[in-house]
UniProtKB/TrEMBL annotation:
Species whose genome carries this gene: Streptomyces azureus
Gene3D superfamilies from the UniProt entry: Glutamine Phosphoribosylpyrophosphate, subunit 1, domain 1, HUPs
Nucleotide-binding recorded as keyword: yes
Catalytic residues of the enzyme: 2 (for gatase activity)
Annotated keywords: Amino-acid biosynthesis, Asparagine biosynthesis, ATP-binding, Glutamine amidotransferase, Nucleotide-binding
Name used for this protein in its record: asparagine synthase (glutamine-hydrolyzing)
Keyword presence, Magnesium: no
One cellular component (GO) term of this entry: cytosol
A molecular function (GO) term: ATP binding
Residue ranges of domain Glutamine amidotransferase type-2 in the record: 2-215
Length: 616
């Protein structure tokens, strides 16, 4: 896993402006702490920072491949292609010779063999830039589900690109501007594919390739979810899901560095850990598992201690069942409140979007894991794929003409006090923007002829979660992990598994009336009964009043600062009323309001640290 960046300039030589390229590359050092390099070639510069996972000695980048003694193509690559050994054998049979054991060289030679169609041969998570010296063309490629990020920023005579916005913004020609559409994305959480919040910047969409040639930038899809008839009966479907998941997990345990598994003791992570332990056992390698929890806080010393949320007992039981070593990472309010840590989390995200303290705790969890492992397996994607969220099982939410996760029962007013200008939603036409993005998302859903209305509706819901909701979580996971040089793999996002389960009828996914019935049946013989039947639990959050006291202090500092950048979006009267409400709130009410006023603090810090210019 790595960080990539670069610059194509058709009218200039980026090599003549090396400080700019070096600054862009240096921003990716957190993603690649092991090594770095830059390749210059006329109108292009490719930068790379490496986290060595496969072939630590031979996988140096940017990597060059030659034909008849001449450089044919160069790549700056981030990610893992899990089936690279099989691909390498196939390419060898076609006459290719390899000089490394890395998957990077396999990707390069796949391009030489199959041209632009090569990406269809790759299975894994990846984002990379490939420069074809022969045709003077740049390819920006992102994996099918969007597990690894990739951004680009067209310029007057070319394009800047990077794994994260910070790499692009390090170039003097890129500006951190926020337009009305950027504000709309921030305030609605619709997560429009390709949108990057910053004005003039874009994301390569999942399953797409961006072609950059002189005077032309085009984006083309190479993969998307398709609607197909499902002819397997229930028993066959259950068996097929188990085989696909087991194969995906086993394939993702390949690494030349220490590997572990995240373990909450829930169905999703327990299934991954179980199959990972099985795969490693065949190689006589142990599996280490890690969980996160919080020490109890409060004024009563008797209430303090090392007790964790309920995850700990279930995780320990699963670890014992599969013979894995298990470690709890215990966090407290002091750790989550640390200003340096909070600044690092914002820097990792590049944006003020997030899940309050859950982002910080995830960062700290990954930072602790990185002391033991370089690669971790995680359960992201299971809820979206198998229907684990409550919204899937709320008929009103699935029938609402909006994204299910935005549906609210009763009055539509957002919970808690608002510090922002109450006229802002109307001025930005947020309701219309949200409705337009929802209509676009629904229009993208593949249709199966003759499908019953209920099945068609649930196919739509599944598609919305897989293409709009899951990418938000994958982005969060990538940023928090790569900020500390940890590679996190997500077996539930294996595209073969996703393609199969997406087309399983909803009635079969919920055949026994519970959430994730199909997944539970698929792993029934592998998990302890207590873990198998455990009710779904959310990611844990801190409940220490010391943490909320810290937030109130930060909020007070913001309100006392007339130069706070976020004040451009605030209404003074509304903000004052909201602040008074927060000041009087009980500890329980504060936890409920936390996401709202922590978001305000993040937006202010982001606008200040990134020197964001409002262009609305």
């Amino acid at each position: 896993m790595c960080g990539i960046t670069g610059w194509v300039a058709w009218e200039r030589d980026p090599g003549a402006q090396q400080p700019a390229v070096e600054a862009m590359t240096q921003t990716m050092a957190c993603r690649g702490p092991d090594a770095g390099g830059i390749w210059y070639g006329g109108n292009v510069a490719l930068g790379h920072r490496r986290l060595a996972v496969i072939d630590p000695v031979g996988g140096t980048q940017p990597m060059v491949v030659e034909e008849e003694g001449r450089v044919a193509a160069v790549i700056s690559y981030s990610g893992e292609v899990y089936d690279f050994p099989q691909l390498r054998d196939r390419l060898r049979s076609l006459g290719h010779r390899f000089h490394t054991r890395s998957d990077t060289e396999v990707v390069l030679r796949s391009y030489l063999e199959w041209g632009d169609d090569f990406v269809r041969h790759l299975t894994g998570m990846f984002a990379f830039a490939l420069w074809d010296v022969r045709s003077q063309k740049l390819l920006l490629v992102r994996d099918r589900l969007g597990i690894k990020p990739l951004y680009y920023y067209p310029t007057a005579d070319g394009v800047l690109f990077g794994s994260e916005p910070k790499a692009i913004l390090a170039h003097p020609e890129a500006r951190a501007r926020l337009s009305s559409d950027g504000l709309r994305e921030l305030m609605t959480w619709v997560n429009t594919p390709g949108h990057a919040i910053f004005e003039g910047m874009f994301q390569v969409r999942p399953g797409h390739t961006v072609h950059v040639s002189r005077g032309k930038i085009t984006e083309t899809p190479y993969w998307k979810l398709e609607a197909r008839p499902h002819d397997d009966d229930l028993d066959t479907t259950v068996s097929r899901v188990r085989d696909l998941l087991r194969t995906a997990v086993a394939g993702q345990t390949v690494a030349d560095v220490p590997l572990c598994s995240l373990l909450s003791g829930g169905l999703d992570s327990s299934s991954v850990a179980t199959f990972a332990a099985e795969a490693l056992r065949t190689r006589a390698e142990p599996l280490n598992c890690f969980s996160v929890g919080f020490s109890r806080g409060g004024p009563d010393p008797a209430a303090r201690g090392s007790a964790l949320v309920d995850d700990a007992d279930y995780a320990a039981e699963l670890a014992g069942h599969i013979g894995a070593a298990h470690k709890d990472i215990v966090l407290d309010a002091k750790l989550l409140s640390d200003p340096t840590t909070r600044a690092a989390v914002l820097r990792a995200r590049d944006l003020p979007q997030g899940l309050a303290d859950m982002d910080t705790s995830l960062y700290l969890l990954f930072k602790a894991i990185r002391q033991h492992s370089t690669v971790a397996l995680s359960g992201e994607g299971a809820d979206e794929l198998f229907g684990g969220y409550p919204w899937f099982h709320d008929e009103d939410a699935t029938r609402a003409q909006t994204f299910p996760w935005m549906y609210m029962r009763g009055a539509g007013a957002p919970p808690g006090p608002s510090f922002l200008d109450p006229a802002l939603p109307r001025r930005l036409s947020l309701d219309e923007y949200r409705a337009d993005r929802y209509a676009e998302a629904v229009a993208d859903v593949p249709v199966l002829a003759g499908e019953p209305e209920q099945e068609r509706r649930m196919r739509t819901v599944s598609h919305l979660f897989l293409t709009r909701f899951l990418p938000m979580l994958l982005e969060r996971k990538d940023r928090m992990s790569m900020a500390v040089g940890l590679e996190v793999r997500v077996p539930y996002c294996d595209h073969a598994l996703v393609e199969y389960v997406f087309n399983v009828p909803w009635s079969m996914k919920t055949f026994d009336g519970r959430e994730k019935s199909l997944l539970r049946a698929a792993v029934a013989s592998d998990l302890p009964e207590a873990v198998l039947t455990r009710k779904k639990a959310p990611y844990p959050t801190i409940s220490d009043p010391d943490y909320d006291h810290m937030l109130k202090g930060r909020l007070g500092d913001l309100m006392d600062d007339p130069a706070a950048p976020v004040r451009a979006l605030m209404d003074e009267r509304s903000a004052s009323e909201a602040f008074n409400t927060v000041q009087k709130a009980s500890p329980e009410e504060l936890r409920f309001l936390r996401v709202g006023f922590e978001s305000l603090i993040k937006i202010n810090d982001w606008m200040r640290d990134y020197r964001v210019e409002l262009t609305e």
